[in-house]
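Notes from hallway chat w/ T.B., transcribed later so I don't forget. T.B. wanted the structure written out for a chain they're using in a teaching module, and asked if we could keep both sequence and structure tokens in one place. Agreed to drop them here.
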Amino acid sequence: MTIVAISMKNFASEQYAQGHVSIWMGQSELDELGPFFKDNYLPGSKTLVFDQDSVLTGGTVNEWFTLYLDTPFEYDAQSNLIIEMESLNCSTIYVWGWDTGASRNRYTYSPGLPGGASDTEVPHLQIHGSLELQRTTFGRIKALFQ
């Protein structure tokens, strides 16, 4: 699957300018993320896919906003997908999320730190791209996030 964009569901009713947003994607064999960001990736899979000086998010509650990747990501659909986001001037991107019941999210409020705290909440997320996956793949993804 070639991923070309991601969308998130806005939580706030105001538009926010996120300062310098970077997004990396990569693959992992882990079902739960470990404490150090770099240790969660399969070697050589971490790729900078989005790097913008400023991003406007939000505007209307429950509205989806889309971030188009600078570099498409080739996902193998066999391992677990990691999406790592960093914003220098904001501690969070105000989007809806849900509790997965397992440690599927790592975060820090200080960009550049090697590790962070674990969280069971993940954002509402849509992944856009070419669909060359088997029919059972999305059932598995849904089961992992429930």
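Follow-up for T.B.: The two ends are 22 Å apart (CA to CA). Might be a good example for the class.
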